[in-house]
């Protein structure tokens, strides 16, 4: 790990573009902040989702075991909101950076699938996604369309194989992260010369530890993050504005 370099000039998109050119390969780590400009609230801003509902009541594995119908009332709305959202210019810029060979992969905490929909190909979804729901008994995976169809007439979707209530395909609080995805994300971070964090408060572990696996990292985030003091460079600004400028500068 490299300590921050005090000689690096002010925290601008141009400085970030120079860093991206210098430090290849680059792996990007995104959080909810990359999708707020698509109309999807993040979690921890004052206007974030957790300002309105208690995550442990609607998005924890304990809540799911206690009252799956309550969890599904929350996720039904959420899946509809996320499916109606469109990728914004930050998602599109990251896809373009991958096409240009500047970004090797995107590791995302987001469940909204917007990176793939914007054209990114190497995407590692470490918190699962809304693409499907999962049976905890027989491990069947049911696609979102079929899940939503069931939710039209039932308070919770059932596994077509064993009849168990399905669980949303996202990692709930209190659950382990998918091992294969975390291993791939860790390998990518270790092999990168730069991890670029975009739109994450870096408060949710173990993903928040990924930048520390790399020899250096930079951050684009509006507002503070837990690792600001250790970053090579921090741009405190909007994700789409900053990444669009980076694209222009490259
Ligand atoms: P977070 O809410 O903890 O942090 C988001 C950060 O992004 C905040 O610091 C915020 O100030 C910043 N931000 C907001 N809009 C921004 C913008 N336009 N440009 C730059 N920065 C911006 O989110 P997190 O770090 O991703 O961690 C929380 C959890 O949230 C993750 O587990 C993720 O699964 C989940 N989540 C996902 C979605 C989604 O899929 N879109 C939405 C909400 C939460």
What would your notes on this structure say?
- A six-stranded parallel β-sheet has the order 3-2-1-7-8-9, with helices on both faces. Strands 5-4-6 form a three-stranded antiparallel β-sheet.
- 36% of the residues lie in helices and 16% in strands.
- The chain starts with 12 loop residues before the first helix and ends with a helix.
- It has ten helices and nine strands.
- By secondary structure, the protein is of the alpha/beta class.
- Bound molecules: nicotinamide-adenine-dinucleotide.
- Nicotinamide-adenine-dinucleotide binds next to loops.
- Nicotinamide-adenine-dinucleotide (NAD) binds next to loops.
Strand order of the largest sheet: 3-2-1-7-8-9
Q: What is the residue-mean pLDDT, rounded to a whole number?
A: 93
Bound molecules: nicotinamide-adenine-dinucleotide
What sequence of helices (H) and strands (E) makes up the elements?
HEHHHHEHEEEHEHEHEEH
- Let me know the largest β-sheet: 6 strands, parallel
Q: Treating each run of at least 4 consecutive H or I residues as one helix, how many helices?
A: 10
- The shape is elongated
Strand tally: 9
Percentage of residues assigned to helices: 25-40%
Q: Which structural category do the helix and sheet elements fall into?
A: alpha/beta
Could you give the topology of this structure?
Elements: H1 13-22, E1 26-30, H2 55-58, H3 61-66, H4 68-84, H5 89-99, E2 103-108, H6 114-118, E3 123-125, E4 128-134, E5 141-143, H7 144-151, E6 167-170, H8 179-191, E7 194-198, H9 210-213, E8 217-220, E9 233-235, H10 239-249
Parallel strand pairs: 1-2, 1-7, 2-3, 7-8, 8-9
Antiparallel strand pairs: 4-5, 4-6
The chain binds nicotinamide-adenine-dinucleotide (NAD).
The site of nicotinamide-adenine-dinucleotide has 27 residues, from loops.
């Amino acid at each position: 790990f490299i300590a921050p370099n005090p000689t690096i000039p002010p925290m601008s998109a141009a400085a970030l573009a120079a860093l991206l050119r210098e430090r290849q390969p680059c792996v990007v780590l995104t959080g909810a902040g990359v999708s707020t400009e698509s109309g999807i609230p993040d979690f921890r801003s004052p206007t974030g989702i957790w300002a309105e509902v208690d995550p442990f009541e609607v998005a924890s594995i304990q809540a799911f075991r206690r009252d799956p119908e309550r969890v599904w009332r929350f996720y039904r709305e959420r899946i509809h909101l996320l499916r109606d959202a469109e990728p914004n210019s930050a998602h599109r810029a990251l896809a373009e950076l991958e096409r240009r060979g500047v970004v090797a992969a995107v590791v995302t905490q987001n469940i909204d699938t917007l990176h793939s929909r914007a054209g990114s190909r190497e995407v590692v979804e470490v918190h699962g996604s809304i693409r499907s729901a999962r049976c905890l008994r027989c491990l069947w995976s049911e696609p979102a369309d079929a899940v939503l169809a069931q939710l039209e007439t039932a308070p919770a979707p059932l596994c077509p194989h064993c009849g168990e209530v399905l669980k949303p395909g996202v990692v709930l609080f209190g659950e382990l992260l998918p091992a294969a995805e975390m291993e791939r994300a860790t390998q990518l971070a270790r092999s990168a010369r730069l991890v670029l964090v975009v739109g994450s408060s870096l408060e949710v572990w173990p993903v928040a530890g990924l930048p520390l696996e790399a020899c250096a990292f930079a951050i684009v985030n509006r507002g503070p993050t837990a690792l600001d003091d250790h970053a090579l460079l921090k741009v405190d600004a909007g994700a789409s504005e900053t990444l669009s400028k980076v694209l222009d500068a490259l």
